[in-house]
Amino acid sequence: MSSKEIRTRFAPSPTGYMHIGNLRTALYTYLIAKHDGGKFILRIEDTDQERFVEGAVDIIYKTLKETGLVHDEGPDIGGPVGPYVQSERKGMYLDYAKELVEKGEAYYCFCSKERLDILKVNAEALKRPFKYDKHCKNLPKEEIEQKLKDGVSYVIRQNNPTTGTTTFDDVIYGKISVDNSELDDMILIKSDGFPTYNFANVVDDHLMGITHVVRGNEYLSSAPKYNRLYEAFGWEVPIYVHCPPIMKDAHSKLSKRNGDASFEDLINKGYIKEAVLNFIALLGWNPEGENEIFTLAELTEKFDYATINKSPAIFDPVKLRWMNGEYIKRMSPEKFHELASPYYEGVITNKNIDLLKISELLQTRVEVLGEIPEMVDFFDTLPEYDIAIYTHKKMKTNTENSLTSLKKSLPILEALSDWNIDVIHDSMMALAKELEVKNGIILWPLRTALSGKQFTPGGAFEIADIIGKEESIKRIKVGIEKLEAALA
Ligand code: GLU
Predict the structure, then answer these.
(1) pLDDT tens figures, 244-257
(2) How far apart (Å, rounded) are the C-alpha atoms in residues 407 and 168?
(3) Other CB atoms closer than 10 Å to residue 393's CB: what's the count?
(4) Weakest-pLDDT range from 36-50, 263-277, 278-292, 450-464
(5) Which among 353, 408, 415, 342 is positioned nearest to 380, based on CA atoms?
(6) What is the pTM of this model?
(7) Could you confirm whether 482 is annotated as catalytic?
(8) What's the CATH number of domain 263-375, 1.10.1160.10, 2.130.10.10, 3.40.80.10, 1.10.760.10?
(9) Which of these is catalytic: 131, 147, 256, 357?
(10) Do the annotations mark residue 256 as ligand-binding?
(11) What phi and psi values does residue 176 have, to the nearest 5 degrees?
(12) How far is the CA of 219 from the centre of ligand 1 (A)?
């Protein structure tokens, strides 16, 4: 027997950035559909016109495209159940709300802002969550009709029972029952004629044939009210998959408002989009086995939404760095060079420097592309540095023996007719042997003089090779001068 095709939707509100939690929702939504060959739909939820942000929808398209979460239906490509932008569906909701009014499951409410404010203040004083008091539920029919005729501003509210319980199932959180006395008569249609998210999500998910509703667990507490709406209409309730929150630490949720990174922020810092997506997939879900590196295709094959964790996931930046480094190591040298190149711009201006050689050095050493400029700036110009960095306990170097090493190295290097890693290497090894000192006594001062830095990608031979003979000699002389001045 063939089962019903899975249809999932990602339904972002255009906020102007892609929050990490939203991207994870998009990913899980995509994976649930694609694991079973179903359809992944994009719906833009822009009914909150006050929060409208210019260009925000483009960020959603761009992120989905860049991460490979390709939708089958959506505002830009259309589909059988459009329009896919909620504001363009505005005219569709009122009739559904009126149907509920007819059924006694909803009612017109004409309460003024002042009256509602008083209710809110009272609730606050009693330390109770605000709940509308059903005042307009009991208005006589004639009065309602007169008010509507007179064009009095109104909203339509859901009419929830005050006794009994409502139960619903969530794949992650299980069976949840709430007392109906806790259910607020939430607004379905606002005074501007737009539906609330609370109403639109139910109508749209039904009309779009959504089988699995995937979203953040902040919607879990509203789910009983949504269930009542489905039931009032006599519609099939979708499978609910409410995802656990993503935490910054044990106490606070990851949030852009708290200064936490969005997807774009991470990309701008030099994280690889595939790595970010891979990392996000594991925030709240883990496949069996040790491996943690998966392509989107592999995730699609392995993903099982029934095994999403209920407990909050912690966003571990150290793990993200590690994972990003793994992606960098595994890419082709050509690809890495292409990604690294923009970071050399304005940092390495000397045309004689072979950037490919730098990329080769960096690929195994860099974890986040944004760190490249500070790692490579010394290739271009020798930075100001303190001679204290010549002294290294483990290498057994100090100001005196560093000076001796540089003075001995200088004429040998000056005399080399060829200039490449091998000849530089062999000449310096021979020197260490001749002087009967450990290699570090020669190499630490040399690398320090060549770079002016304590830490560098690559050692003395690679650096000398990249900056060239003339520049190397120049920098060694600077080193000698500095050390001599200190000892004078
Ligand atoms: N527009 C809602 C949001 O961005 C989506 C909630 C849902 O997926 O139902 O949070």
Answers:
(1) 999 999 899 998 88
(2) 80
(3) 7
(4) 36-50
(5) 353
(6) 0.91
(7) no
(8) 1.10.1160.10
(9) 256
(10) yes
(11) -125, 130
(12) 8
